[in-house]
Amino acid sequence: MAEAKKEQEPVNIVHQNAQFTETVKKERKNQKVFTAYSVNPYDRGFALSGKPNSKHDSGDGQGDQNFLKMYHRSLQPPQEKFDFPQTEAQEIGWDTTPLVKPVPKTDRRLQHGHQWTEVTEYQEAVWTANRHKNYVDP
């Protein structure tokens, strides 16, 4: 059993240091330093009020225009933010405009009001007389 285990070579510190420096160089090469921080406009967060008699906590002064623009954009519906749906779920209901223009109620070809004839007047009278019954006798 002892023969099956191979003896491990001692750790070569020079090779280990070379691997570490190579790893650090790759990380620095691909690293993107981001220093322009702002508040996430999609997070509603909490509004904290200042001290009541403090002058420096008042709402006077300039606001961050970039933040306000991003915040107002986050409140818009997706159809105003994007030209096309971003997900499969957004494709359903993306175009809400009707395919056919609505027909005015004055168009007699499609709008038929309630017409009273002798038959409908008779049936209405039967239904009102027998309202308490579950069926209508002919």
Outline the structure in words:
- There is one protein chain.
- The protein has 138 residues and is an all-alpha fold.
- Helices cover 35% and strands 0% of the residues.
- The protein is built from five helices and no strands.
- The radius of gyration is 38 Å and the shape is elongated.
- The protein starts with 12 loop residues before the first helix and ends in a 9-residue tail after the last helix.
- The model has no long low-confidence stretch (mean pLDDT 81).
Largest sheet: none
Uncertain residue ranges: none
Number of extended strands: 0
The helical percent reads 25-40%
Rg computed from alpha carbons, rounded to a whole number of angstroms: 38 Å
What is the first-to-last residue Cα distance? 102 Å
Shape: elongated
Number of helices: 5
* Mean of all residue-level pLDDT scores: 81
What structural class do the secondary elements suggest? mainly alpha
Descriptors for this entry?
0% strand; 138 residues; mainly alpha; 35% helix
Task: Summarize, please.
This protein is 35% helix and 0% strand. By secondary structure, the chain is mostly helical.
Give the SSE layout.
Blueprint: H1 13-30, H2 65-74, H3 78-81, H4 88-91, H5 118-129
